[in-house]
């Protein structure tokens, strides 16, 4: 009998959190912010029910039959997503966004970076953030080369 080759699989889990924010860049004037972000620049902010889907990728363990224990993934997502972001004003309650515009793109990067610190090295594959049913950002940790 030949040895069985390792099988790769992707495992995804989702969570939903509620938060408010204001799209506003300190690098722009109030007029420029209003022109760029429109109603999302409302000084009092606005809220979303974000849905986040986290996907990990790895070999299926021959003993457990899992890429990763879902209980562990749930715990990591609680720590990296729910605790810092749920029912928060992103701009005022999350230090990361004091200097970074709280766009969905940057929310995805924040979640990626937070999960990277908790998950086993190299297992995080994708973070998908649904700001609305129509607006979705997918981040896979990719970076551009600074020129």
Automatic annotation (TrEMBL):
GO cellular component: mitochondrion
Domain of life, per lineage: Eukaryota
InterPro entries in alphabetical order: 6-PTP_synth/QueD, 6-PTP_synth/QueD_sf, PTPS_Cys_AS, PTPS_His_AS
Names of the cofactor(s): Zn(2+)
Pathway annotation: Cofactor biosynthesis; tetrahydrobiopterin biosynthesis; tetrahydrobiopterin from 7,8-dihydroneopterin triphosphate: step 1/3
Gene3D superfamilies hit by this protein: 6-pyruvoyl tetrahydropterin synthase/QueD (3.30.479.10)
Name recorded for this polypeptide: 6-pyruvoyl tetrahydrobiopterin synthase
UniProt source species: Falcunculus frontatus
């Amino acid at each position: 009998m030949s040895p069985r080759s390792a099988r790769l699989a992707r495992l995804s889990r989702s969570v939903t959190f509620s938060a408010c924010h204001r799209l506003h860049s300190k690098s722009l004037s109030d007029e420029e912010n209003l022109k760029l972000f429109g109603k999302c620049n409302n000084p009092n902010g606005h809220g979303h029910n974000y849905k986040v889907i986290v996907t990990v990728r790895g070999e299926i363990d021959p003993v457990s039959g899992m890429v990763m224990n879902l209980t562990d993934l749930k715990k990591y997502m609680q720590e990296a997503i729910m605790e810092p972001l749920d029912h928060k004003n992103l701009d005022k309650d999350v230090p990361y966004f004091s200097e970074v515009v709280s766009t969905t793109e940057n929310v995805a990067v924040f979640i990626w970076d937070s999960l990277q610190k908790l998950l086993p090295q190299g297992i995080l594959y994708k973070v998908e953030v649904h700001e609305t049913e129509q607006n979705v950002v997918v981040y896979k940790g990719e970076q551009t080369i600074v020129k």
